[in-house]
Specification:
Blueprint (H helix, E strand, L loop, with lengths): L29 H17 L13 E6 L3 H11 L5 E5 L1 E5 L2 E4 L8 H10 L3 E2 L2 E4 L5 H7 L1 H17 L4 E5 L2 H4 L6 H21 L3 E6 L18 H4 L5 E4 L15 H15 L5 E6 L1 E11 L10 E4 L3 H8 L4 E3 L4 E11 L4 E10 L2 H13 L4 E5 L6 H7 L14
Parallel strand pairs: 1-2, 1-16, 2-5, 3-6, 6-7, 7-8, 8-9, 9-10, 10-16
Antiparallel strand pairs: 3-4, 11-12, 11-15, 13-14, 14-15
Helix pairs in contact: 2-3, 4-7, 5-7, 9-11, 11-12
Length: 407
């Protein structure tokens, strides 16, 4: 993984709010009124940019990957006021008894990010990723003894860090382990979540899971990633973040087409029986694929698939003179451009095709979450976002078109 992904630098792919509170205060005396006025003046005096932005009308959670901190930190003090749960994304499960900081994460920025988060009203719910080889986590969970040891490790990690909860990002079952292992892994996973949920709840902490989508309550080829058993784990978790993105991985195509997103929402509701714990993942990124070459290409210089973000894509468009086209059916944008590739001796032109989700795409996916009355949305990710994304999250109350316009 790397920071500042561009079309010129191959990168690993992304992993992939508190509700509006109404306080009715009865002021019985002028002293009380004056106290509130003075307190408000002090708070405003501490902020050079005025009062904090309002909460969005649907709870907002957000991941914060370490490789996006350079871009996220300058705005985080303001953005965090709109967030319910914020998930630092740099912790890995590297053994049954080990949770470590990702070796690629720099120390600079991690502590500052956590300090800002802790000063806010946001709940700090770090993500823990399964960084073990294929099959290793499944083996840990299959053995009751090692499963309990792993629960104890996570519980101690949460307590030592004084975190408000934990977000599990155990994706190896879905993307590294064979599908033939799912029947064995599923009950072990359910037992693990049941035990971990009870342990964290006993400590007054929350448990969130971030998992790929399911499309119904079944366990067949059309059911999606049923190994995670949405229905069985729902009673034991506080939130399920649906990773409703990464639709196109091997070939050029949309990131999270609206039909796919809605199918994932409907499937999750069917599997759990309720939208009450479901949180929709929002992708503020895109992908940049090669689509062919002309000329004699220096193979070692050719680029494969890379990543763009809502923050970086406009610069790429400008540098390449590209013309984005809105794809109404998917709720995304796409464009193509030519990239000259040379090693000084030979050269060719490589065609590139980019698909990405912009601020309006974020708004349209939030509208789906609202329509299905989900528990919230989760932004992937802080540092990938731009002003247009935040305008979609916090549309101006003075602009009634902001939440209803089409691209």
């Amino acid at each position: 993984m790397t920071t500042n992904p561009t079309d010129d630098t191959p990168v690993d792919e992304p992993r992939p709010a508190r509700p509006i509170e109404q306080r009715h205060v009865v002021l019985a005396a002028l002293v009380g009124i004056l106290a509130i006025v003075v307190a408000g003046a002090v708070v405003l005096a501490r902020r050079s940019d005025g009062p904090p932005p309002p909460k969005p009308d649907i709870p907002l959670d957000a991941w914060a990957p370490y490789w996006g901190l350079d871009d996220a930190l300058p705005e985080f003090d303001e953005r965090v006021t709109a967030i319910r749960d914020v998930s630092p994304f740099w912790f890995n499960a590297t053994g049954v008894d080990e949770i470590t900081i990702d070796r690629n994460a720099l120390d600079e920025g991690l502590d500052e990010f956590l300090e800002i988060a802790r000063r806010s009203d946001a709940q700090v719910v770090p993500s823990i990723s399964d960084a073990l080889p294929a099959g290793a986590m499944a083996a840990i969970l299959a053995d009751p003894a090692t499963r309990t040891r792993h629960v104890d490790t996570i519980r101690a990690f949460a307590a030592d860090g004084d975190y408000d909860g934990i977000d599990l990002d155990y994706e190896q079952f879905a993307f590294a382990d064979s599908r033939s292992t799912w029947a064995t892994t599923r009950p072990a996973w359910v037992a693990f979540i049941t035990e971990l949920g009870a342990a964290l709840h006993a400590d007054r902490r929350t448990l969130t899971v971030s998992i790929p989508p399911v499309y119904n309550a079944g366990r067949d080829a059309d059911s999606g990633f049923w190994v995670y058993d949405y229905g069985a784990i729902a009673p034991h978790v506080d939130r399920i973040r649906i990773m409703a993105y990464d639709f196109s991985v091997g070939e050029p195509g949309p990131i999270a087409p609206l039909e796919f997103v809605e199918r994932a929402i409907v499937g999750a509701i069917e599997a759990t029986g309720s939208p009450d714990k479901l949180v929709l993942g929002l992708p503020s990124y895109g992908r940049n694929w090669p689509i062919g070459e002309t000329g004699v290409c220096p193979v070692e210089e050719l680029q494969g698939r890379t990543t763009v973000t809502a923050r970086s894509v406009d610069d790429l468009i400008s540098r390449r003179g590209a013309v984005p086209v809105a794809v109404e059916a998917t709720g995304e944008w796409m464009f193509t451009y030519d990239l000259e590739v040379t090693d000084g001796a030979t050269s060719c032109v490589q065609g590139r095709q980019v698909h990405y989700v912009d601020g309006d795409g974020i708004r349209r996916r939030m509208d789906l979450a609202r329509e299905y009355r989900l528990n919230g949305v989760a932004l992937w990710a802080l540092g990938f976002d731009d002003d247009a994304v935040w305008e979609a999250i916090l549309p101006s109350v003075s602009d009634p078109v902001a939440s209803t316009s089409e691209p």
